[in-house]
Amino acid sequence: MKKTVEQLQAALDREMEYTKKLNKKIDLMRKQLKDRITIQEHEKVLALLQEKHAQEIAKINNRQSQKYNERGAGRKKKATNQVILRVLELRQEGLSQQKISKAIFEELGLVISRTTVGEIVRGEHGNGAE
Length: 130
Known about the structure:
This protein is mainly alpha-helical. The protein has 2 domains: 2-62; 81-122. 70% of the residues lie in helices and 0% in strands. It contains 5 helices and no strands. It has helices at 2-35, 39-62, 81-92, 97-108, 114-122. Helix 3 (81-92) crosses helix 4 (97-108) and helix 4 crosses helix 5.
C-alpha cells in the first residue's frame, strides 16, 4: 500500500507540473491575443498613414521651388547681355559657332567656347548679370 501511495503521489506531482506548464502556455497565448492588432485596426492605421503620406506629398509638390544657386556660388557666366545679343546677331547672319566664337574674341576680347555659343543660341545659357 505504501508503494501505491508513493506512486499516486508521484503521478499527482507529474500532473501538477504538467498543469503548471499548460497554465503558463495558456497565459502566454492570452497575452499574445491581447497584444495582437485586429485586421480592422491595422487597416485603420494603414489608411491614416496613407492619408498623412498623401498630405506630405502634396505639401512637397505645392512648395515653391528654390531659386537656382541662390547664394551666387560657383562659376559666373561669361556672357553678358551685350555678348548674347551679338552672338544672336551673328547667328542670324549665318555664321557657324566657331566663327561666332572668333568674331566675339576679335570684337570684344572675350574668349567664349563653341559650346557656350551653342548654349546661347539655344537659349540655355543664363545671363551673366543674374
